[in-house]
Specification:
Elements (H helix, E strand, L loop, with lengths): L4 E5 L4 H12 L3 E6 L2 H15 L3 E5 L7 H11 L6 E4 L3 E2 L9 H29 L2 E6 L15 H18 L5 E6 L8 H4 L3 H4 L10 H13 L4 E2 L3 H12 L2 H16 L7 E2 L3
Parallel strand pairs: 1-2, 1-4, 2-3, 4-6, 6-7, 7-8
Antiparallel strand pairs: 5-9
Length: 275
Amino acid sequence: MTRPLVLITGASSGIGAAFARHFAAKGWDLALSARREERLEALAEEMKAQFGVDSLVIPANLADPDAPEGIYSAVLESGRQVDGLVNNAGYGLPGAYLNSEWDDHAAFLQLMVTSYAHLTHLTLPGMVERGFGRVINVASVAGLMPGAKGHTLYGGAKSLLIKFSQSLHLEMEGTGVHVTALCPGFTYSEFHDVNETRDIVSQLPAYWWLTAEEVVKAGYDAVERNKYITVPGTWYKFLVALNKILPDSVGMALMKKGSASVRSSEGSAKGHTQG
């Protein structure tokens, strides 16, 4: 019997690579997409040696509007189908909104919002037809909190992914397709290195930090249980619960104070972690 196949974007490092290892351990074949082909090839070899699963390596830059179609076509041309989708590719634009050119913001939205929706739109019909599918949209706890100073579009993009996932969860009821929004907080990965903010965020207390493995386990377990949203980590569960009972004005004031200390030195550095 052919193993199910999961398509993972941003798979070359961090949460994406951790998802690849977790799904492989559960007996899934992999379609790995990111920009860095050599890393994908190394991960594919590792997964074959460790778990005996097969991998498709599909280099792509999801800031390109044509990339989702190209990725999906590559899977079909290999004779496979997409049974699971992990929309994980992402990056940040640190600094104030006007510190980046509009083209940078447009590319950010293309990758962080449009590519997720596009890949889901491409892969979902087959899942519904076969009566089985798993979709995980990697959002962020930032999408559940008040807006913060800097990374201006980030929280809004993640909030859209959460609402998108909630709506799809309802639409997929009874089809065998599960949809989950995974909302981690600060996670050890390359995200902060490529954004040149590692020294800044590393000043946060240890309880703010999650490992990629615990984030992935929370996401995998949630989509299997068909939970529409999951927030990994006790600290972040507490923050989200607290935000629900605080007046908006208080939440905004707290975010202003907190973001001032974390963002003050970020400037306008730019970086990608889609791999």
